[in-house]
Amino acid sequence: MTVTVDPSLRVVEAHLASPRFRVGEAGGRWRVLATDWPNVTIKVAAAPHEGSPDGFAIRFELSGYPDQAPTGTIWDVEADTPLAADKRPKGVRAAQLFRSDWESGLAMYAPFDRVGLRTHTEWASQYPMTMWTPTRDLVFVLTEIFETLNADDYLGA
C-alpha cells in the first residue's frame, strides 16, 4: 500500500528544517511546540514586561502551503483554544495583529494571513513588502510576529 504525503506537509517540514528557521530557533526567537497536521503551533518570544509571558503560541493552519498563505491565531496551549482577549498582547501593532474583534480572533489581521488577504483584497497593492507570496516561507511570518512582539510599542499582555 502506498502512503501519500501531503505535498504541503513536505514543504512545511523543509522550511522548519531550514537554516533560516534554525537560526531563529537557536536565537530564542521561536520554537515549535506541536504539529498536528495541518496545524503547527509555534511559540514566538516577546519582549519582557512584568506580569507578561515570555512569548506567545501561534497556531498556524497550513493546508495548501505555500501556494496559500498561512493563517493563524494566538493560542492558549493549556486550554487548547484561541487565547482570550484579555490575555492577548497589548500595544498598537500587537493589538492590531491579534485582534479579537475581527474574524472572532481566529486569524491574524495582516497581509501575510490567508484570511486577511481574502477579506482585504486591496492589501496586495497597499502592503507589497508584507504581503504573502508563495516564494515566502514561514520564517517570513514568524519574523513579522517576532518584530511586533518586540517593538517599542509592545506593552505586554
Characterization of the model:
This protein is α+β, with helices and mostly antiparallel strands and 157 residues long. The protein has one domain: Roll (Ubiquitin Conjugating Enzyme). 29% of the residues lie in helices and 18% in strands. It has six helices and five strands; from the N terminus they run ααβββββαααα. Strands 1-2-3-4-5 form a five-stranded antiparallel beta sheet. Strand 4 and strand 5 form a beta hairpin. The radius of gyration is 15 Å and the shape is globular. The model has no long low-confidence stretch (mean pLDDT 94).
Which percent range describes the beta-strand content?
15-25%
What would you call the shape?
globular
Which oligomeric form is depicted?
single chain
Query: Which residue ranges are poorly predicted, with pLDDT under 50 across at least 5 consecutive positions?
Result: none
CATH architecture: Roll
Which structural category fits the helices and strands? alpha+beta
Radius of gyration: 15 Å
Instruction: Determine the number of helices (DSSP H or I, runs of at least 4 residues).
Output: 6
CATH class: Alpha Beta
Order of strands side by side in the largest beta sheet? 1-2-3-4-5
Give a short account of the largest sheet: 5 strands, antiparallel
Helices and strands, in N-to-C order?
HHEEEEEHHHH
- Compute the separation of the termini in Å: 50 Å
Q: What is the domain total for the residues?
A: 1
Say how many strands there are. 5
